[in-house]
Structures are given as C-alpha cells and as structure tokens.
Amino acid sequence: MSPATVNPAIFAELKDAAGADFVSDLVATFTDEEAPQMLAELRDALAAGSAERFRRAAHSLKSNAMTFGALPLGELARSLELGGLPADAAPVDALQAELDRAVDALKDLCRG
Amino acid sequence: MAESGSRLLVADDNKVNRLLLGRSLEQLGHIVAMAENGRIALEMLRRERYDLLLLDMEMPEMTGFEVLEQMVADRQLRDLPVIVTSSLEGVAHVARCIELGADDYLSKPVNPVLLKARINSSLEKKRLRDQQSALVRRFATSEVAEDMQRSGFALGGKRITGTVMFCDIRGFTSITEQQTPEETIELLNTFYTLMFDAITGAGGVVNQMVGDGLMSIFGAPLPLADACGSAVRASREMIELIEMLNVEREAGGRMPLKIGIGIATGDMIAGYTGTHSRATYTCIGDAVNLAARLEAHTKLAGRPILVDGPTAQAVAGQGTLEPLGAVQLKGKAGTVDVFAVSV
C-alpha cells in the first residue's frame, strides 16, 4: 500500500495543537497563495538555469509539505532540493501532480 | 518556571512556517512579532527590544547565518538568545549555527512540546544573564560591567598584575555596643557609600563586602595604567572622607570611626569563582593575602595606610612614604618590607 497523500495522524496533531480554524486558514494560505508561487518559481528557476533558486523553492515546498503531513510531496520536494538542477521539466511535472493530489486531500481534511 | 508574556521575534521567509510558529508562540502566552527576511529582522531587533529570536536560516536578502554574524558583532544584540528553526539538511549547518552563537536548534516542522521547552530554557538563560549583569553593575563601574559583558561570563581566571586593597573599620564591635542596630546599619551604609565613591572614582572595583570590611581590586578586570597610584590615591581619599564623617559624628556626640587600609601589588589570578548560577569576581594570589595582613597590621603600626614594597616602588615620588622596615607578618614565612602612606 502506498503511503497516504496526507498522513491523517500528522494533520490531526496539527489541528489539535494549533486549532481547526487556524489550520483551515493556514491550508488556504498554502494551497491558494504559497504553493502555486513555489511551483512557478521552480519552473522559472529551471528555465533560467539557476540551481540555487531551484533548490530554495524546493526547500520551501518540502518544509510546508512536511508540516501538513503531505509526506510523499515532501519526499519529492526533498529529492529536488538535494538533486541539483534536473535535465528537463519531468520531475517538476511529477511534483505538480503530487501537489494537486495533496491540495485536494488537504481541502477534504479541512472540511471533514 | 513559566516564562509567558515575553516578546519574541520570528524571522522566516516562508509564510506558512511564519504563521504557524507565531500561532504556537501566542498559544504559549508570548507576544510575537514577525519578519519575512533577515534584513527586516535585524532592523526590528535594532529598533525594539525583544527577549528571544526564532531564526530561519534559508532566507532571501539576508540569510540567518548573516543575521547571526551581525548579531555577534553588535554589543546590543550579542546576548539576545537565538533559537534556529530550520529544515536545512545536514549537521554541518547545525554546528555552524551553534558556532555563531545560536543557543539552540529546532528542526522543522517544529514539535510544539520541544518548542515550549526550548523557549523556556532560553528565556531562563537570558534571565540569569540579565541578573548577572545587574549584579556586576552593583559592584563595578559601568565601564567594568560593560567590559565583563563584552568578554563574557566564564568561570576561571586569567593571570594579571594588579593591586589589591583591604579596608576595615577599627573597633567596630565597641561601636556596635554603643548604638542601636538601626544606627549601625545606617553607619555601615554611609561607610560603604563613601568607600565605594573613593574606590570606583579612582578606577578600582569593590568585589567583596564582609561585615565591616571590603576588598577591592585595581587593574582587573580592566587593565589600569597606574594601578598602584590609583589604589594609593583612593586610600588617601578614603581617610579624608572618614575624617569628614567624624566631624559630623563627634558633633552628634558619637564615637569617631577609624579605618585601616592595606595595599599590595603583584601577580594574581583574576576571574569568577563559584558556580555558573552564583559566582563572585575575585583575585587569588600572594598579594591578596599580603594586603589582608597589611590591613590587620595597621592597628599594631598605628598608621592607617600600609603598602608593600612593589606598591611603594611604583608610587615613589607621588607622596610621602615612610619605610617601616622589615616586618614579620602573620602567616608569612619571611619578613616583608612595609611602608606607611602619610595622610
């Protein structure tokens, strides 16, 4: 069995600690503002050939994914952070797909 | 001990991290301000007072490493506790943060229980440091206190050449027998005020007060160009001040005060002794014992100020010194050349 897109125990712990309403707002900040910017930055950095900008954007995304318990997303972002500038956009596309799944899962968890 | 209500600054360029950390800290009862990069954080730290900084490493404009470097170089900021919060990979980063003066390191995502414990521990450390510097200011001039803060607090000492002075009230027991305890406390407070004034005015540091006596150091922790001369000048002024006090006392029908002063110069170890939470700045060495013996000998010699050979040599020509010859002092194997300072 593949690991859950968002680890329910980690997310529940976050809600317990910070409060459900606060976490809903925080998820919205991530899904609506921050994550799209980070993805855009990854693509821009790749196009510009800037390994440092690419690493930083991947680092930020990893950090937030781990906070919400989106562990597969976090692992993908981590491999980009440590792997250097990729040869093409395929790894970024894969990350985008995993991010989309995580966003859906997080929104579901907030409603639930 | 709960340390809620402290002013904390969170520096993190990642909005989600910043908001979440801010929330956790507010839930612990703290007042939280936020900065989105190192440059803004540093500006805020220089503008307002904070009790603790939570610092991310990877930030645009100015990284956390650069913030730490600037803080170490800034006397106002170097003692502010810093907890690094980062998800940087590798222990080398952690080691570098600690080397740059960070108190602690929390990896992200930050565990709320660990966060609370680390914050309380850092705030408690800061409280102790503040208490120590307040304590230092109580027995040292502000220049000396600042120097101690600059060079940091560490148990252990360094070898210096300095001058030590002991001063004691003569016949204190019979004075206390003739007046109420309230009058004695008031007399001691007046005595200490006058002696502190003369000693710190000449560049010395009063480091011990015991009963009716005190010990002071000239030439440590800050080097003094003319430690011997300063100590002798201070001792003369102390005698003058006591004589002025005695005019008042005798007019009020009270017994005059008499003090004895012993001064000796030499190599000694100066530094903090005690424990990390409770320590005294002091000097240890032959000259310290000698100064105490000379002070005790003033009674026998019938002279208020006695100094040793090295001190006398250093101040030759600065006033009248009378050689009293070689004297056998208690606790000393050989004889010691003793000089009386005329007042």
Describe the structure.
The complex is a heterodimer of chains A (112) and B (343). Chain A has helices at 8-18, 20-48, 51-68, 71-83, 90-111. Chain A is mainly alpha-helical and 112 residues long. In chain A, helix 2 packs antiparallel against helix 5 (90-111) and helix 4 (71-83) runs antiparallel to helix 5 (90-111). Chain A is elongated. The relative contact order of chain A is 0.18. With 343 residues, chain B is of the alpha/beta class. Chain B has 2 domains: 7-137, Rossmann fold (3-Layer(aba) Sandwich), CATH 3.40.50; 142-341, Alpha-Beta Plaits, CATH 3.30.70.1230. In chain B, 45% of the residues lie in helices and 26% in strands. In chain B, helix 2 (38-47) runs parallel beside helix 3 (64-72) and helix 8 packs antiparallel against helix 9. Chain A binds chain B through residues 17-19, 22, 26, 29-30, 33-34, 56, 59-60, 62-64, 66-67, 81-82, and chain B through 13-17, 19-20, 23-24, 27, 58, 60, 87-89, 108-109, 112.
Class from secondary-structure proportions of chain B: alpha/beta
Order of helices and strands of chain B: EHEHEHEHEHHEHHEEHEEHEHEE
Shape, per Cα inertia axes of chain B: elongated
Instruction: Report, as a whole number of angstroms, the end-to-end distance of chain A.
Output: 23 Å
- Rg from Cα of chain A: 14 Å
Which two chains form the greatest contact, residue counts included? A-B, 19 and 18 residues
What's the main sheet of chain A like? none
* Helix/strand order of chain A: HHHHH
CATH-defined architecture of the largest domain in chain B: 2-Layer Sandwich
Structural domains of chain B: how many? 2
Label the structural class of chain A: mainly alpha
What would you call the shape of chain A?
elongated
Poorly predicted parts of chain B? none
Give me the number of helical elements of chain B.
11
CATH class of chain A: Mainly Alpha
Task: Give the distance, in angstroms, between the N- and C-terminal Cα atoms of chain B.
Answer: 54 Å
Radius of gyration of chain B (CA) equals: 27 Å
Helix content of chain A: over 70%
Could you give a short account of the major beta sheet of chain B?
8 strands, mixed
